[in-house]
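quick one
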Amino acid sequence: MSGLLKNEWLKLANNKKLYFFLLAVAAIQFLPVFMTLFLKMRTLNGQVYPLTMFGVLVSFVLPLLLLILVAETVAEEHTAGLLALSLLHPVTRGKVIAAKAVFFFTVILVFLLFAMLFGYAVGTLLFGWGGGFMLRGTAFPTGKGVAITFLSYVTAALPQFAFCQLVMFLAVVINSSAAVAGIAAGIFIFSSMLMLLSDEIKPFLLTSYFNTVPAVADFAIGKTGVFAQFSFPALYALVFFLLTVLVFSKKDMLF
Amino acid sequence: MTAIPVLDVRQVSKKFWNKKVLQQISLQVSRGEVFGFLGPNGAGKTTLIRIILGLVRPDGGEIYINGYQVRGAFTRAIARVGAVVETPRFFPYLTGRQNLQLVRNLHPDVPEERIDEVLALTGMAEHAHTKTGAYSLGMKQRLGIARALVNDPELVFLDEPMNGLDPQGIIEMRALIDRLSSRGIAFFITSHLLHEVEQVCETIAIIKNGRLLLAGKIDELLARDTETVEIYTEHPDKACLALDNAPFVRKRRLEAGKLVVDLERGSSMDLNRMLVASNIPVRYLVPRKSSLEEFFLEQAYGEESV
Ligand SMILES: Nc1ncnc2c1ncn2[C@@H]1O[C@H](COP(=O)(O)OP(=O)(O)OP(=O)(O)O)[C@@H](O)[C@H]1O
Ligand SMILES: [Mg+2]
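structure w/ adenosine-5'-triphosphate:
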């Protein structure tokens, strides 16, 4: 299992795609600078900067990057006859899928932590550290602000991971990586739209759980019931992981 | 004491949709044996390899590698197997060495140095740090073999290994297979280059339309009831006349400067005696081995080629 995980990172670290993805994340994080300079939209400081683009990052950018990554490392590898390579060694198919899942989780964490640190760096260098942390009209002491920022970023990994599991399931069912990416993008956009239309369906849509800032902020001011926020994505991830293992274990590898 | 075969395929069948791709295939490969698996395009060779390796599920039958059943004890069965299925695939953005590293990482017991060993063995050391996306077909074949050897296998599957190799490469590949098999590594080789199989394999099986036509030691398969002898003489016409009445001659024909005679097996002494008795000066009398190529064509394509 650790060998499989090592292999995934060896591949990604040597794949130009990783660096383009990180560049895309950095570009999004840089946007508030333009908004401030050209539109005089708001006054920023280093403490609040990392959360400025957080919603856009986790609700749009990251899911799109991840669906490309998953389609490539599962469906594309499969049809290129590369996924079969790891199956010719003493590892079970379940472990191959588990290693991919853990790999995606680590990739998500790397993207998120990179985005946060990049945000702190850009914000502080350009606007200074600032006097305090403000979130949704509430002021928090610096320490609590950093904690809220950090927790928001880290907990966002769970719903992103659940989304990866859905794409992974599609990738073992459908062989074409373009079809996988297309269908996953369709589901994602549809769900994001539906979320805006109806409050009744909202709790059943994974996209509703992408932005973790409200839950973490509620937790920070002592509201309970926050953990329910994370049980849905966790269950979602588990179900699609098990389905993926089930389908993949029975699959004929013909490429 | 009967040694366990390194590969034991029992009654394997497979259908794709309604097409019977493999029908009740059984075969065995013993330790250190070089086994040639021959058949025309679409016969089912690659499909059988995929089934043996656990990539595809058979509809029926059992497979044992080193006594371990592939379904059930997969990780044990596969631990000492190396394989190249169809043309070897690599991650194009990784170097040759990194592609082998991926395999090493799945075999914690294999030492790091093993990678350089197999790179040297296959003559790929100088290209080890080039990205495989820039490799030629021959280089990919070699690296594919190197990769199949990383885990120190006891059984190696090579699907058309000579494909894409230059003449020098083919000679080297043959020498490599010889050397490794003498160390006890068994090979399962599919090939269309039949004379290659003849030179490298001890045992062959011929498959057509998913059915095993025959299997056995090459020497035994070729030992049929006739043998062919070439007679080199200054007087081929005289020799022809002399042989006309010989009961043991089945067929004779003149080829450039020699007379080619098909005899009943074991009658070459009689032939010699008869030529001497007829006072025909013979320069050489050379036994000709019927080539596996002829044999293969006869068996595999016989029905169509008449
Ligand atoms: N994915 C598939 N779906 C349906 N039929 C298939 C599939 N793969 C192979 N076949 C069929 O199975 C048969 C055997 O194919 P296989 O690739 O095993 O042949 P082969 O002996 O390796 O041929 P070649 O010498 O061309 O490599 C062929 O008739 C082929 O059409
Ligand atoms: Mg084939």
